[in-house]
Amino acid sequence: MLNRRVFSIGLASSIAVPLAVPALAQQRSDVRSAIDGLSQLHAIIVQHGDDIVIEHAARGPGVDRVANIKSCSKSIVGLLLGNAVDSGAITGVNATLGDVAPSLIPADASAEVGSLTLEDLVTMRAGLEGTSGGNYGNWISSSNWVAYALRRPMVATPGERMIYSTGTTHVLGAALTVATGETLLRQARMVLGEPLGIEIPAWTRDPQGNYLGGNEMALTPRAMLRIAVMMRDEGLFEGKPVISTDWFRSSTQRLARSPYSGLDYGYGWFLSESGYIIARGYGGQIIAAHPERKLAIAITSDPNMPARSDGHFGRLMELLEGPVLALA
C-alpha cells in the first residue's frame, strides 16, 4: 500500500503514534519547531519511502480539500509535454512552434517566434519579455493571451537565459492542445489523474477557451503528494509507469537557472543542489521530490501572500534542506 504507517505532528486532534526511536522523535521535533514559525504555511505532508512521516495542517482548507497550486501548474504542463512527445503527437522538444501550432502565431509577432522550440518554451528560455510580475495584469486583461505573449518583444536570444513568464508556459499549453486535439484539462486527467487516482478540477480558461497553462490549477495536498511520489520514483507510481523514465531524466536536466532563487531549472521543474526536484507556486505552494533520500513532499501556503526567495519560500527551502532532509 502507498501509506502503510502515518506519523502525525498535528496538535491535540492528531492520531496517536507509536513510540519512535529517540533520533526520529528529535527529527520530528525539529520539523515541528521549524514549521511553527511559518505563519503563511497551510499544510505539509512528507512521505519517506512508503510511510507518511509528517502530516500537519496548521491552517487553511486542510489536506483533503483543493488548494490553488499557482505556478506548480507549470511543472504539470512539462509532464504533459513529455506525454505528447512519447505518444508521437509531437516529434520531440526540438519541434518548433511554427511546425506544431502555426495558427497560434500572430502575423505581427517577431520573426523569431515561429522558430521557438518547445524546449525553449518549457524551460522559459523563449527570449520574449515576460508576462509575469508587474506585466501579469495587462496580459490576462488582453483579448488573446497567446497572441499577447507572442507579441512581446524579444529581449534575449532564444535558448539562452531563463525569463520567468506564465505567458510562455501558456503558449506551450495551447500548442499541446493543438498538437494532441485534447484540452489541457483532458490531458491532465488522462496522463496524471487516472493513473495516480487523483481528481483534477477544471480551472481558468483564456478568451479562446484554452486552459491556463501555468497557473490557477487546484489540487488537494494529498494529490500533490502523489505527483511528488511519482517524481521521486522516476516516473513510476506503485510500480506502474505514469511518465517515461526517459522523460523524467530529460525533465531533470539542468538547462537554465532562475535569476531569483538561484535554483536550476529543467523541463518545468526547479532543481536544488542537494537533489530536490521542485514545483513552485506563488505564495509557497510546493511539490517536491528527493529520489536519493526517498522523500516526497507537498506544501500549501496562503495563496494571497508573496513567497520570495528571501522570504517565505526561502524559509520553506531551509525547512526542506534542513529538518525534512534529516528525516531520511
Automatic annotation (TrEMBL):
Domain Beta-lactamase-related per the UniProt entry, residue ranges: 43-302
Chain coiled-coil ranges: none
Domain of life assignment: Bacteria
This protein's UniProt keywords: Hydrolase
InterPro entries: Beta-lactam-related, Beta-lactam/transpept-like, Diverse_Enzym_Activities
MF annotations from Gene Ontology: hydrolase activity
SUPFAM superfamilies xrefs: beta-lactamase/transpeptidase-like (SSF56601)
Gene3D superfamilies: DD-peptidase/beta-lactamase superfamily
PANTHER family on file: BETA-LACTAMASE-RELATED, BETA-LACTAMASE-RELATED DOMAIN-CONTAINING PROTEIN
Protein name from the UniProt record: Serine hydrolase
Originating species: Aureimonas fodinaquatilis
